[in-house]
Design brief:
Helix content: 10-25%
Bound molecules: flavin-adenine dinucleotide, FE2/S2 (inorganic) cluster
Largest sheet: 7 strands, mixed
Number of helices: 5
CATH class of the largest domain: Alpha Beta
Number of domains: 2
CATH architecture of the largest domain: 3-Layer(aba) Sandwich
Radius of gyration: 18 Å
């Protein structure tokens, strides 16, 4: 992990309140893996190098795509507040203060031939990076992604063409009608490894679903973060081995490692 200055190369609106930022920064593009994230300060950097102190906290965003040959990577952000709103308005040429890559990535088993990816809302982001990584290794990929309604659906152009992309919406306005884990359930017997990222209720539903006993499932957890370096303990969740830090011990965990019963 390093603190680096990334240059904005592009900023494209891809759905309502949803933007893809393409950033040039060779260290992160060369060293990040699917499932890892970056921590970005949401303030302008002046030519003198000084930055305003407010907002102080960085905002975590997952890696969407890596282009190591160009020294670039991409993130996708959903505008929910002050930080993401500021990021949605940055323009090509602007500089960002970025920490990364951070966290434990997904672990694709060498024996996996059919990967089922289950995303809820913005949780699709690290799964897109994983889909590209897996498809490049001749793994068949099915990505089931659930969204609130048609306006929030991430377009298929963001997802690697080799992956089967199945969209579900809560209101049935586009794609399958229903919750991503329920739609994904029919693919569980087909898969030999499962990866999921999304809101806690979605991951909890997946944890409680009946599934083949030996099927390995990894989940990427989301928590509010302070330092993202394992120091402040602001991001802990309950696991079978006590409290663990999402930023350092995760965000990717085995589904059986999380203590879903205790409330996290
Ligand atoms: C490991 C990790 C990866 C993430 N990846 C992405 C991503 O790829 N794309 C993306 O758009 N977002 C992602 N998020 C969530 C993103 O970090 C938050 O939405 C963002 O920090 C909100 O900042 P803000 O200043 O815009 O909103 P704030 O003004 O800080 O908050 C606005 C609202 O968002 C909620 N919120 C803030 N932070 C989080 C959080 N960490 N989790 C859930 N709700 C939150 C607040 O409770 C509040 O309701 C990720 C979070 C984590 C922990
Ligand atoms: S955010 Fe500080 S320990 Fe995880």
């Amino acid at each position: 992990m390093r603190q680096v200055i990334a240059t904005v190369v592009g900023n494209e609106r891809v759905a309502a309140g949803t933007h893809v930022l393409r950033l040039r920064e060779p260290h992160i593009s060369a060293h990040a893996s699917p499932g890892q994230f970056v921590h970005i300060r949401c303030v302008p950097i002046s030519p003198s190098g000084s930055t305003p102190s407010d907002p102080l906290l960085r905002r975590p965003l997952s890696i969407l795509d890596l282009y190591p040959e160009l020294g670039e990577f991409a993130v996708l952000l959903d505008v929910v507040g002050r930080g993401t709103d500021w990021l949605s308005r940055v323009a090509a040429g602007e500089k960002l203060d970025v920490l990364g890559p951070l966290g434990r990535p997904f672990g694709l088993r060498p024996t996996t031939r059919r990967a089922l990816l289950i995303g809820g809302g913005i949780g699709i982001v690290p799964l897109v990076a994983l889909a590209r990584y897996a498809a490049a290794r001749d793994v068949e990929v099915t990505l089931v992604a659930g969204f609130r309604d048609a306006s929030k659906v991430i377009p298929a152009s963001i997802v690697p063409a080799e992956a089967e992309y199945i969209v579900a919406t809560d209101d049935g306005s586009v794609g399958r009608h229903g919750y991503a884990p329920a739609v994904a359930a029919e693919y569980l017997p087909w898969a030999d490894q499962v990866f999921a990222c999304g809101p806690l209720p979605m991951l909890r539903a997946l944890a409680r679903m009946e599934r083949p006993r030996r099927l390995p499932v990894q989940v990427s957890m989301e928590e509010h973060m302070g330092c993202a370096m394992g120091v402040c303990l602001g991001c802990v969740i309950r696991t079978r081995k006590g409290y663990e830090r999402v930023c350092r011990d995760g965000p990717v965990f085995d589904i059986n490692h999380i203590d879903w019963q205790e409330g996290i």
